Amino acid sequence: MPLADYFPIWDKLTPAQQNKMARSVCQKSFQKNTMIHNDSMDCMGLLLVSTGQLRAYILSDEGREITIYRLFDMDICLFSASCIMHSIQFAITIEAEKDSNVLVIPPEVYHQIMEESAPLANYTNEIMASRFSDVMWLIEQIMWKSFDKRLAAFLLEETALEETNSLKITHEIIGNHLGTAREVVTRMLRYFQNEGMVKLSRGSIEVTNINKLKKLHNP
């Protein structure tokens, strides 16, 4: 996929800058559940998602995870190039949620062009601002929204992403996404089942009343 498709400011780069970026890019493939980046790994570079699905999450000292955002086709991941973003002071882990193909721009190349090009620097700052908005939205949800509404929203999002009401997902994985214990997820899902919104079986959840979930999520 052409780099121009990822960068709306591509035409504002000089031909030399375009060529330098295009020559440096490489393609990588990651299998589902592969860890792509964390704070103990070398700075990989800028990730451009061609196909697949990536998950960015933070990990507490106690080992609890919480998803801060996901990346899909045509998305750009800056945090894998955190070595060029000196303002980032917290550790983010990125993993492949599905088999994924990505383009990788080396950090030194991207950083050099970004220093030369105001349009690229501005666009990079726009992406960063968007990601931090995602983080602030998540904090707001955790602080002010009850867990049943957050779980309903997650199930609705999953059915839309997977294009099915039958989800192959464990309670532990849901807990990792939402930053809570598996037992809390299980209790709430059992309540959802008693209310006729879902049907539970080992390793899967079937959404049986999507309208009721929507009403719970957004009354």
Any overview of this molecule?
By secondary structure, this protein is an alpha+beta fold. 42% of the residues lie in helices and 22% in strands. It contains 7 helices and 11 strands. It has helices at 15-24, 107-116, 118-144, 147-162, 171-178, 182-194, 210-217; strands at residues 26-30, 35-37, 46-51, 54-59, 65-71, 76-77, 93-96, 100-105, 166-167, 198-201, 204-207. Strands 1-8-3-6 form a 4-stranded antiparallel β-sheet. The longest helix is centred in the middle third of the chain and has 27 residues, at 118-144. The protein is elongated. The model has no long low-confidence stretch (mean pLDDT 91).
Blueprint of the fold:
Layout: H1 15-24, E1 26-30, E2 35-37, E3 46-51, E4 54-59, E5 65-71, E6 76-77, E7 93-96, E8 100-105, H2 107-116, H3 118-144, H4 147-162, E9 166-167, H5 171-178, H6 182-194, E10 198-201, E11 204-207, H7 210-217
Antiparallel strand pairs: 1-8, 2-7, 3-6, 3-8, 4-5, 4-7, 9-11, 10-11
Helix pairs in contact: 2-3, 4-7, 5-6
What's a quick, concise take on this entry?
The chain is an alpha+beta fold and 219 residues long. It has helices at 15-24, 107-116, 118-144, 147-162, 171-178, 182-194, 210-217, and strands at 26-30, 35-37, 46-51, 54-59, 65-71, 76-77, 93-96, 100-105, 166-167, 198-201, 204-207.
Can you tell me the residue ranges where pLDDT is under 50 for at least 5 consecutive residues? none
Residues in helix, %: 40-55%
Largest sheet: 4 strands, antiparallel
Distance between the termini: 42 Å
DSSP E strands, number? 11
